Amino acid sequence: MKALLLAAGFGTRLRPLTDTIPKCLVPINGKPLLQIWLERLSAANVGPFLINTHYLPDQVHAFAETSRFKDQIKLVHEDYLLGTAGTLQENIEFFEHQDGLLIHADNYCLADFNQFIAAHRTRPKTCLMTMMTFTAECPEHCGIVEVNEAGILTEFHEKIKDPPGNKANGAIYALSAELLELIGTDYAQMSDFSAEIIPQLLSRIYIFHTEDILIDIGTPEQYKKVQYL
Question: Is the pTM of this model over 0.85?
Fold first, then answer.
């Protein structure tokens, strides 16, 4: 299964660290974050990988050129950020009409991707995609989901005060070929996957919840925390 890794952001909340290094390459226990993603996904037989660049792209190119996954990586540069859905739309052909993964690669995730992919392949027939969720410490800063007894998304609350729970969107998605086709046509004018596309798919998203580590390292506090995990 191919994967699109979204890695083009500025990482502004991590400054001054990200003044000189893109967020996707910040070191976690001495290893670039993007390297951790490639290792864990490859161990689950995921690949090839498409990685978008924008901020400090030369560093990402240099990383890819020296990576042992070099032959599995394709980089695509965005002169201006297209948005999470915009990048997906621009690169729909990468998936070749097959199911694929869409991943925010600026998170730190130790979930079992074999289990995630297996859950997607056995999802209810009415569902077009599978979303990975985790238990959020600060749910008001996350997209919070409500799920029915079948594990299907019924409500989605994007970063609201006093959300109804702490089961949060991990920004890791397995997308069906059918949904990818819709994203290239019916949803072609949308630029933000979480804010615009997910609300269109209530009752059509299967939820895979992980109890493994999944952390947004967007703040210095969270970044420091993962160094000790």
Answer: yes
